[in-house]
Design brief:
alpha/beta, Nucleotidyltransferase, domain 5, 2 domains, six-stranded mixed beta sheet, five-stranded mixed beta sheet, 11 strands, about 35% helix
Length: about 260
């Protein structure tokens, strides 16, 4: 079985595949400093508690945007699974033609998303919107050219900016709101967070479609932890919350001749 790990700024998003079937998904807080032993024990435990044998993990693929965790993650893979992980990084096969001026600047999570999307939707113009700690937009054309992207603060970061830089505004639950005008401070913050992000998603994706694809048909894919918050807004053509995990599986297979 294949263990996949998408190491982000807020969470480690993981999954276990048998063939192309995703059997298990899990998350682990990545904001705190953790040791290889903490990670290894957690990974074994979450696999065991979901009715699987950790010894069946014979392959591991990961991507990371948190360099401070890379050593601990790789050590945990070696110590607790006896597996040298495949790392999605510069120099490995992706099947993409990266058009960034400096290709290594593109986050590995964004590359994983792009690999999965181009495998699932070949010969399509694609816009991928990943709503995590940051909200990112990526454009890939039907020739698998990764054309560029947009990065804005994620909805939770926007809330934290208000909390940390104002005297009287506190953290609120991030929810979908029905009306623009709030009847209290918490509701007003929730409305502002939701509708400002909703507007940004619409405007930026529309501009990408117009500037990059000349209004040609393109598929907008939503992914990331907050994507379902906007599923009724008709911004996305579809939501694939596990996109990065499927991209890691595809990248592993591409680089190991499977």
């Amino acid at each position: 079985m294949l263990l996949t790990l998408d190491i982000g700024n807020s969470h480690i998003f993981g999954g276990v595949f048998s063939g192309d079937e995703l059997l298990l998904r899990f998350r682990y807080d990545s904001k705190q400093v953790v040791t290889s032993d903490q990670l290894g024990v957690f990974l074994r435990a979450v696999i065991r508690e979901n009715g699987m044998d950790h010894s069946a993990i014979d392959r591991i693929a990961l991507c990371s945007v948190v360099p401070s965790l890379d050593y601990s993650i790789r050590s945990a893979c070696m110590k607790y699974f006896d597996v040298e992980p495949f790392v999605l990084q510069a120099g490995v096969k992706t099947g993409l033609n990266i058009k960034y001026r400096n290709p290594i600047e593109v986050g590995a999570d964004r590359i994983a998303n792009a690999i999965a999307a181009t495998h699932s939707f070949p010969q399509k113009n694609l816009i991928i919107i990943d709503l995590g700690t940051a909200t990112t937009f990526c454009a890939i054309n039907q020739e698998r050219h990764y054309l560029g992207g947009v990065i804005i603060p994620g909805i939770k970061l926007c809330m934290m900016a208000l909390e940390n830089n104002t005297a009287k505004l506190s953290a609120v639950e991030i929810v979908k709101t029905q009306t623009a005008l709030g009847k209290g401070t918490a509701e007003s913050i929730q409305s502002g967070l939701y509708f400002s992000h909703c507007a940004a998603l619409r405007e930026i994706s529309a501009r990408i479609r117009q500037e990059t694809f000349a209004n040609k048909e393109s598929l907008i894919i939503g992914t990331g932890g907050f994507s379902h918050l906007f599923e009724d807004e008709k911004i996305f053509d579809l939501i694939v919350p596990d996109l990065a995990l499927h991209g890691l599986r595809a990248a592993y297979e591409l680089n190991h001749g499977e």
